[in-house]
Amino acid sequence: MIVRTWHGCVPLQHAEGFARHLERTGVEHARGIPGNRGALVRQENQGEWAHFFLATYW
């Protein structure tokens, strides 16, 4: 199995909108590619920033 990871961060006040965007563009896109075995998003808030971690499984 291969796991690809990605990390990004946005100001905390934009976290909700970015989470929706990441779900539509990252997760849904990856799940639609043949061979994909899943995708997982984790959000960690740290101070004024929201960190997003995306893992896709192949």
Write structural notes for this entry.
The protein is of the alpha+beta class and 58 residues long. It has one domain (3-57). Helix content is 29%, strand content 47%. The protein has one helix spanning 15-31; strands at 3-11, 38-46, 49-57. Strands 1-3-2 form a 3-stranded antiparallel β-sheet, covered by helices on one side. The mean pLDDT is 96.
Computed Rg: 12 Å
Strand order of the largest sheet: 1-3-2
Weakly predicted, low-confidence segments: none
Q: Helix share of residues?
A: 25-40%
The major β-sheet equals: 3 strands, antiparallel
Shape from CA axes? Answer: elongated
Protein name: Antibiotic biosynthesis monooxygenase
GO molecular function: monooxygenase activity
Keywords: Monooxygenase, Oxidoreductase
Question: What descriptive keywords fit this protein?
Answer:
58 residues, alpha+beta, three-stranded antiparallel β-sheet, elongated
